Amino acid sequence: MTDNLYDAVVVGGGPAGLNGALYLGRSLRRAIVIDSGEARNMAAGVMHNVVTNDGVEIADFRARARKEISAYGVEFLDDEVTSVAPDGDRIVVETRSGARLHGRTVLYTAGMRSILPELPGLAELWGKRAFECPYCHAYEVRNGAFGVYGGGEPSECLAATLTQWASSLTYLSDQRELPEEESKHLAASGIPTVTDRILGVSEHPDGVSVKFADGRTQEFTALFMHTKAEPRIAPLRPWLEADDLEAVQTDERGRTSLPRLYVAGDLGKNMHQAAMAAASGGLAAMAINADLVREDRPGSLYDL
User: Fold this and answer.
1) Which of 48, 251, 268, 271 is the most exposed place for a label (fewest CB within 10 A)?
2) pTM: predicted TM-score of the whole model, two decimal places
């Protein structure tokens, strides 16, 4: 990488980054994708709701995508980005291994990290019998008895949504006192609430076993919950004066108020699904190409 000036450095190799890279490659742009290999949905193993790729293994999807995109001259680097910072009319991207890349633009698609509630046994079940997204996972456990854990993040709306797939639902508040509005939503959906303290969860042959402090257990086909999510933006912190990238995103094409920085995927606006994330990556890549055309040929394009 002696001549390491890229039209775009893509940070993150999930659906948003991959689709953005595809658009950039087909736009004859010199681009590189830097991917740490960590992904929010990797625990699930498979992806859903992506036409022609529904139910495929995530690793297989990524490998096939890389092969297709490489045909357009896009490069890939398996590494962790540690710093993204402006340097005049360029952005400098540094990695854990010591690589130092210069980009005319950066498409940042590093995504989010789910923070699970401190519930013993949950991490071992995550993506297998414990889930967050009903549209991604409820079909595979349809017509089962679902537990909805509301002891961390309020999940009454998730519980109501799950009535479409479940034969029965139980809301587990784990001693958290429910606000009146939350209780009203659950009652309106006909969902009973168990308030007892939970000691932990474990897998059993047909699903999940929840153990309560009084010694009894209750079994469910699957456990669903909302989780807190942490934006993976540590490399941007010295530059970013906001808690997340959504706060600085200025349009639906991923432009931000930070010069030459674009965002797509989970870090953007309402794109927490693989197909939507991929679409946002394509939109951001189109914006990058249009902005670079304008920069190279002033007055040649109207606003896009």
Assistant:
1) 251
2) 0.92
